[in-house]
Amino acid sequence: MKKRVEVEDLRPGMYVVELDRPWPEFSPGEHGFAIMTSDQLSKLRALCAYVYIETDLEVLANASDTLHDPASFSRLDRPELELEMLKIFSAPGLGHDQYPDTQSMEAEIRTIRLVHEQAVELIDEVMRVVRLGRSIDVAATKRIISDLADSIIRNPDALVCFTAMRQTQTTTAEHGLRTCILALALGRHLGMRKRQLGDLGIGTLLHDIGKTQVPQEILECGHELSEEERCILEKHVADGVAILESTEGISSSAIDVARQHHERYDGNGYPTGLRENEIGQVGHIGAIVNYYDSLIHPRPGKKSVPSHTALKIMYEHRGKLFHPGLVEEFIRCMGIYPIGSIVEMRTGEVGVVVSLNRARRLKPRVVLVISADQKYFETPAVVDLTRHRNSYGELLEIAGVAEGHAYGFDPLDYLPSVA
C-alpha cells in the first residue's frame, strides 16, 4: 500500500517507491529503494517536498527480489546484527514456555502424521465449500485444531517439520495450515492454555478465508499487482471477517486474527491502520506468522527467503511492522537456527538442523551431511550438539548459517521422513 509522506517525516528503513518529481541521481531499480543512510535521507529532504513509500513489506517481498538486494538491505548481512541476535536469543531461561516436551520429534511425527493429512483435507474442503456459499463444518475444524494443539504441546518440532517439508505448496489453504501450526507453536511458547490455543489455531487456519472471494487469476498472478488488483486483494480481510462472523461457533478472538493479520505495529497496515496496543495479542501473532510464511513460501514466480534470513528481516522490523516483544519471542520459539537450516561447524562439518534444544538454543540436533574434510558422509547421522564429538575428539559448535543450497544439496532431503 503506497502512502504519501512529507520528507521531514522520513526515517531510515522506509521504502521509497515514488518521488514528487522525476527520479534524479537515485537508482531506484524496478520497485524503488530503501532509505539506509543519512546521506540518502539528506538528499531526499533537499530535493523533494514529499515522497510515496511502500508500507506493506509483504507486498515487496512477494513482488520483487528487493529483500535479496545488497544495496537495499545490506543491513541484514551485518556481522553485528548476527551477534546481537545470538546474544539475545541464546540466553538461558528466556521465553515463557510452560510445556516440557513429552515425546521425541520422531515419535511425534509418527503420532501426528494422520491428523496432519486430515488437516490438509479439512482446510481444502473448507475453502471449497465457502466458495460455493456453504457453511464451514465448525465441529470438525475444532476437532482438528484440538488434535494439532495436543501435538504442539507434546513436541512442537514435529508439526514445524511438516511445514518445512511442504514448502512447494503455495495455495491459500496450505498457507492457512502452515500459519496455524506456527501460531500454535508460538502460543505454546508463550504458555497459552489449551482453550486459547484453540481460538488462535482456528483464527490462523481461517485467517485468509476471505480469499475465496478473490478471483483466482489475482491470487496466482506472477507479476506485481495493479492498484485495482491490490484493492480487490485487500478486500479479503473484510470478506473473511464477514464470513466468520456469520458462522456460528467461531469465537471473537478467532475472528480478530482474520480482522487484524495485516495491521502493523506502526499503524501502516490495513484495513483500518490500527497501531501498537490497538491490535490484540492474537492479531499481532497472526501478523507475525502470516508475514513469516509469506517470506518462506512466496507467491508463484517469486523467490523464497531462507528461514534464517526471514527471521533477521523480522527482527530488523520489530517495533515497526511487528510488536517488538512478540516477534522476539517468535524468534526464540523458532530457534536462532530454525529447523531445515544448513549450519556450518567451526570444525568444518556441515549439517542440517532437524530439531531444537529449548534449553540450549545454540545446541540443536543436527544431521551431519559433510565431514570436516569436506566429504559427504556415506550414512548421515543425527547428532546432539550438546555432547557429540567428531572423529578428532572435538565438540561441534555452530559457526554460521549457509543460505539456500550453498553446498549443492537440498536440506529438506535430510529432515525426518514425514511421508
What would you say about this model in short?
This protein has helices at residues 38-47, 57-63, 70-73, 79-89, 105-131, 138-154, 156-165, 172-189, 194-205, 216-219, 227-234, 236-245, 252-260, 281-296, 307-316, 324-334, and strands at 2-6, 15-19, 33-34, 50-54, 342-345, 350-355, 365-370, 376-384, 398-402. It has 419 residues and is α+β, with helices and mostly antiparallel strands. The protein folds into 3 domains: 2-78, no CATH class; 105-334, Orthogonal Bundle (Hypothetical protein af1432), CATH 1.10.3210.10; 342-414, no CATH class.
Topology:
Elements: E1 2-6, E2 15-19, E3 33-34, H1 38-47, E4 50-54, H2 57-63, H3 70-73, H4 79-89, H5 105-131, H6 138-154, H7 156-165, H8 172-189, H9 194-205, H10 216-219, H11 227-234, H12 236-245, H13 252-260, H14 281-296, H15 307-316, H16 324-334, E5 342-345, E6 350-355, E7 365-370, E8 376-384, E9 398-402
Antiparallel strand pairs: 1-4, 2-3, 2-4, 5-6, 5-9, 6-7, 7-8
Description:
- The protein is of the alpha+beta class and about 425 residues long.
- Mean pLDDT is about 85; it is low at about 25-30 and about 60-75.
- It has helices at about 40-45, 55-65, 70-75, 80-90, 105-130, 140-155, 155-165, 170-190, 195-205, 215-220, 225-235, 235-245, 250-260, 280-295, 305-315, 325-335, and strands at about 1-5, 15-20, 35, 50-55, 340-345, 350-355, 365-370, 375-385, 400.
- Helices cover about 45% and strands about 10% of the residues.
- It folds into 3 domains: about 1-80, no CATH class; about 105-335, Hypothetical protein af1432; about 340-415, no CATH class.
- Helix 5 (about 105-130) crosses helix 7 (about 155-165) and helix 6 (about 140-155) packs across helix 7.
- The chain has 16 helices and 9 strands.
- About 40% of the residues are buried.
- The strands form 2 sheets. Strands 8-7-6-5-9 form a 5-stranded antiparallel β-sheet, with helices on one face. A 4-stranded antiparallel β-sheet has the order 1-4-2-3.
- Strand 5 and strand 6 form a beta hairpin.
